[in-house]
Amino acid sequence: MSLWKRDWTPDQINARMADTMAGLLDIAVTQVAPDALHATMPVDARHAQPFGLLHGGCSVVLSETLGTLACIMTLPGHQRAVGIEVNANHMAGVKRGEVVTAICRPLHTGARTHVWQTEIRRPDGKLACVSRLTCAVVDA
After folding, report:
1. Residue 1 binned pLDDT confidence (cut-offs 50, 70, 90)
2. Which residue ranges does the record assign to the Thioesterase domain (predicted)?
3. Structural fold of domain 10-139
4. Is 85 assigned a catalytic role?
5. Whether pTM exceeds 0.85
6. Helix segments in 18-129, DSSP class H
7. Buried residues in 77-110 as b, exposed as e (16+ CB within 10 A)
8. Which of 64, 85, 98, 119 is catalytic?
9. Which of 67, 95, 98, 110 could form a disulfide with 116 if both were Cys (CB 3.0 to 4.6 A apart)?
């Protein structure tokens, strides 16, 4: 059974993100699976810290983007989601020139709060970052 109450396609989501922070970082939703959102993000000059690796802040932007989108997609039209806490653990570096993949899944979907976890992986499949986003569910 699907989590989603809003029938958004990756193309619709990506078009909506074009003029946002997610668009600036080239975050692209690639799949809306029955239980998760999938995305990619390149690692280039916009994403790199001074030593040529993925900046942790970009991983957090990727996580918050996917978690907020996912939360909104589970809510009826009269409700919205706002991020209230995000954390990230960085396990492995990602080099400039690589592309990370991300999968965002729910840990908790309550009436007033949601918690979403995003796993960000390097091209070799190694876990680069795991991040959790807590959203408050509010009336629009």
Report:
1. low
2. 51-129
3. Thiol Ester Dehydrase; Chain A (3.10.129)
4. no
5. yes
6. 21-24, 56-73
7. eeeebebeebebebeeebeeebebbbbbbbeebe
8. 64
9. 67
